[in-house]
Write a structure and sequence with these properties.
Length: 203
C-alpha cells in the first residue's frame, strides 16, 4: 500500500502490528515516534534558509519556533566568512570580553538566541541553514515523511512494541528503525559532501 498520508501510516501500523486491540493507541505511537525521529533525523527536507541581523546586545534570535539544530552559518559581509559552530562555554572562555570586539568567527546557540565570538563589532547580517521540526503528520503530511516512510513506519512500530513490552517485537523493529534512520542520514551526508576529493587549500 501507499505510505503518503497520516491515514496511510495508521493503516500500515495496524496491518504490521497485527494487534486490533491497539488500534486506538496508534496515534499516540506515531506521536512518540515523531518525537524521537526529529531528535535524530537530519535530511534535506528539514533544512530551512535563514537570514537576520545581529542585535545591539550581540545576539541573534533563533530563526523559527520549530528550530532544531544549526547546519551552517556565515557572516554576509565583505569579505564573506563562514562561522564555525561551537558551544557557549567555548565562546565565553575564549572571548570573555562581551563588548564590541571584532568580526565573529564562531557561533553557538544559547537559550533562544545565537551568540558569537568574538563579540560583534558591528550589526552584521548572518545567514545560513538550520534543521526544523516539520510538525505532526496529523496536521499535514510533509516531505520528510513521504521521502522516508520506512523511518516513520518502523519508528512507530518500535514505539508500539516498547509500550506493549514486547521484547520479540523490539528485537525485530529496533534494528530496522535504526537502519532506516542511518540510511536516510547517510544519503543526506553523501549529498552534503559530494564533489571533489578533499585537498589542502592555502589560507
Amino acid at each position: 500500500m501507499s505510505l503518503a498520508t497520516y491515514a496511510d501510516l495508521q493503516t500500515a501500523t495496524a496491518n504490521w502490528l497485527k494487534r486490533a486491540d491497539q488500534t486506538s493507541l496508534i496515534p499516540d505511537f506515531i506521536t512518540l515516534a515523531e518525537t524521537e525521529i526529529f531528535r535524530h533525523l537530519r535530511v534535506r527536507q528539514m533544512e530551512t534558509v535563514f537570514s537576520g541581523t545581529i542585535a545591539s546586545d550581540g545576539t541573534l534570535a533563533l530563526p523559527g519556533a520549530n528550530y532544531i539544530e544549526l547546519k551552517h552559518a556565515y557572516v554576509n559581509a565583505s569579505p564573506f566568512s563562514v562561522l564555525l559552530k561551537q558551544s557557549p562555554k567555548f565562546i565565553y572562555d575564549k572571548y570573555p570580553t562581551r563588548a564590541s570586539t571584532d568580526r565573529p568567527r564562531y557561533v553557538a546557540r544559547e537559550g533562544n538566541s545565537f551568540i558569537f565570538g568574538p563579540y560583534p563589532d558591528s550589526l552584521y547580517t548572518v545567514g545560513g541553514v538550520y534543521y526544523q521540526n516539520l510538525g505532526p503528520l496529523s496536521a499535514s503530511a510533509h516531505t520528510a515523511f513521504t521521502n522516508n516512510p520506512d523511518v516513520y513506519l518502523f519508528g512507530t512500530l518500535l514505539q508500539a512494541v516498547r509500550t506493549l513490552k514486547d521484547d520479540a517485537g523490539i528485537t525485530r523493529w529496533q534494528p530496522l528503525y535504526q537502519a532506516a534512520l542511518v540510511s536516510a542520514n547517510s544519503a543526506a551526508d553523501r549529498e552534503n559532501w559530494a564533489g571533489s576529493d578533499l585537498a589542502v587549500v592555502a589560507a
